[in-house]
Design goal:
Layout lengths: L26 E5 L6 E5 L12 E5 L1 E3 L3 E6 L5 E11 L4 E7 L9 E4 L5 E8 L4 E7 L4 H11 L16 H4 L7 E4 L11 H10 L2 E7 L22 E5 L1 H12 L4 E4 L1 H9 L10 E5 L14 E5 L6 H10 L1 H13 L10 E4 L1
Parallel strand pairs: 1-17, 3-12, 3-14, 4-11, 14-16
Antiparallel strand pairs: 1-2, 5-6, 5-8, 6-7, 7-10, 8-9, 9-10, 12-13, 13-15, 16-17
Helix pairs in contact: 6-7
């Protein structure tokens, strides 16, 4: 399978810059995998496709305000610092991306906030854009974290080309977000409202939760035509006993298991036994799913409409069938569905 097979022309005006007014009122395309039939619905209609004892699996990761703007010592040049992950709590060490990278060298100091509220020193080069920063802060850890996050912005992807707004902090977070550590939202989960979850619960649908801390690898471009040569960034995942039991119970009793989003699908497929059951797991995954691929766990999935050439589109094509998905995307463009993080949803069953 070649990279060029995932190129399509996406009119720029179809990339959603804002979420739907209400979470569960975005549009939803339903694609039937067997027949290729397409239905046009509203997201809250998802309730009609699930029954008592079916299981929906959610990613309960929580996004933190990862994008900061600081100034370089002496020159005062503005530098964007994107926090990726905390490396050492005691030493205040963080793995970050810096932009423009060419201006930042080991030993440079960066100043953040009014009156230089926070100072960081570059202590290592990890990649061409990546650096390790040590934040120079003497107070208690909780105070440091609060200061750091007060300076950060909601890390909207770059293709949402507008300034961050006040309600992004709430809307770029799922309602079941619990465990902090993501620098991007698991977007399929953004469509669920509390009212919709309650209605699904009343119908008897069971909810399982896993955690995958979404990294920037989701937006990293694929640079090789031969997809077998692409390496995914590693992301941290947790599947607990309860979630594994819920999923395996549903599969055993022939009920539907729905992966809400590509992050959930990747997590589930990372920890499968030879019998096709889900195993509890704590660790890292760099699993890259593209067609052809035999899925073992979920038999339905919710996803957004992904951008051309993205690894997210590749996974959806592996699940829904390459021809059916690429056809569905052409229909979505014709019907003016909204694409990207804040866009509309697709249910593949």
């Amino acid at each position: 399978m070649k990279l060029s097979k995932f190129k399509y022309n996406l009119p720029e005006n179809l990339i959603a810059l804002h979420p739907a007014q209400n979470r569960d009122e975005s549009r939803m395309m339903v694609l039937h995998r067997e027949t290729g039939e397409i239905e046009h619905k509203t997201f809250k209609d998802i309730i009609d496709y699930f029954d008592d004892e079916d299981v929906m699996v959610f990613n309960n990761t929580k996004v933190f305000p990862a994008r900061l703007y600081g100034n370089k010592e002496k020159t005062g040049a503005q530098i964007e610092v994107f926090l990726l992950r905390e490396l050492n709590r005691e030493q205040r060490l963080w793995d970050v991306l810096v932009d423009p990278a060419r201006k930042i060298r080991i030993g440079n100091k960066l100043y953040f906030g009014d009156d230089d509220l926070l100072v960081a020193e570059v202590i290592d080069n990890t990649t061409s854009r990546g650096r390790t920063l040590r934040f120079l802060y003497d107070g208690p850890y909780e105070e440091f974290k609060k200061t750091l996050y007060s300076l950060g912005q909601t890390p909207l992807p770059k293709f949402i080309d507008r300034p961050v707004e006040e309600d992004d902090a709430e809307r770029y977070q799922t309602i079941f977000a619990k465990h902090e550590g993501a620098v991007a939202a698991p977007t399929a989960g953004l469509h669920f409202s509390r009212e919709l979850l309650k209605r699904l619960e009343i119908k008897g649908v069971d909810f399982a939760e896993i955690t995958l801390h979404v990294g920037l690898g989701n937006f990293r471009s694929v640079d090789v035509e031969d997809l077998t040569k692409h390496k995914m960034d590693s992301e941290q995942i947790w599947i607990n006993d309860k979630a594994a039991k819920q999923v395996n119970g549903a599969k055993k009793s022939k009920h539907r298991v729905c992966a809400v989003g590509t992050t959930v699908m990747r997590t589930l497929e990372t920890s499968v036994s030879t019998m096709g059951t889900l195993k509890p797991f704590e660790g890292w995954t760099n699993k890259f799913i593209f067609p052809p691929y035999e899925f073992s766990v979920a038999d339905s999935m919710v996803s957004n409409f992904h951008l051309p050439l993205s690894t997210l589109l590749m996974m959806v094509a592996a699940f829904g069938g390459y021809d059916k998905i690429m056809n569905a995307y052409q229909v979505a463009i014709k019907e003016k569905y909204r694409f990207g993080t804040y866009g509309d949803a697709m249910l593949i069953i």
